[in-house]
TrEMBL record:
Keywords: Phosphoprotein. It comes from the Bacteria. One of its GO terms (biological process) is phosphorelay signal transduction system. This is Response regulator receiver domain protein, CheY-like protein. The modification 4-aspartylphosphate is found at residue 51.
């Protein structure tokens, strides 16, 4: 069972991801970047899904900060957004995220893509 941290300001998205992935994985959800460091240092996370469009600190900026700050172990961070896929891909590459994941309401596709990033 993988441990997945989902950081998204939209409660419905957090709930949906937890509902879809929660049977197979331990899903932890946060509504903002505020407690992210605590979870990274105190939990052995297999995957971190970060929403790009969040207030105060964008997900791509948060990813860039985390990858620079946490050098003790590799972080498997994937940008997660409903924005145009080519723009999302560009942002993920720019901050050296592991990849990107378009927000989808297709449960099977979400499971499949998450499994890809857990390999």
């Amino acid at each position: 069972m993988a441990k997945i941290l989902v950081i998204d300001d939209a409660e419905d998205t957090r709930d949906l991801v937890e509902q879809v992935l929660g049977d197979e994985h331990e899903v932890i959800t946060l509504s903002s970047w505020v407690n992210v460091s605590h979870y990274i240092y105190h939990h052995d996370l297999d995957l971190i899904l970060v929403d790009v469009n969040m207030p105060c600190l964008s997900g791509d900026t948060l990813t860039e900060i985390l990858l620079k700050k946490v050098q003790s172990r590799p972080l498997n961070i994937v940008l997660f957004s409903g924005m145009d896929e080519s723009e999302l891909k560009r942002k993920a590459q720019a901050v050296n995220a592991r990849g990107y994941l378009p927000k989808t309401f297709d449960a099977d596709l979400l499971r499949l893509r998450v499994q890809h990033f857990l390999k």
